[in-house]
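Notes from hallway chat w/ T.B., transcribed later so I don't forget. T.B. wanted the structure written out for a chain they're using in a teaching module, and asked if we could keep both sequence and structure tokens in one place. Agreed to drop them here.
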Amino acid sequence: MTRGWQFEYSFVRLGEGWLGLRSEGLREYRKVIEEHARDGWRLVQVFAPGTGAYGAAKFVELIFERPVRVPDAA
């Protein structure tokens, strides 16, 4: 039998707090993406929930994936 592949996921939420997306965390999103990429993660989606005050999302969530080798079944 050959080995199969599955994916594992990482979820990083940015911009939470009373300032919402104006916080320092959001300005660091590129740094977060670059750090994850160095570790083999691929950005697959940026999720933003419904809007909060002033029509802006309360936070965004970066969703990453990377392949994981699944061992042969015995």
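Follow-up for T.B.: Residues 42 and 64 are 5 Å apart (CA to CA). Might be a good example for the class.
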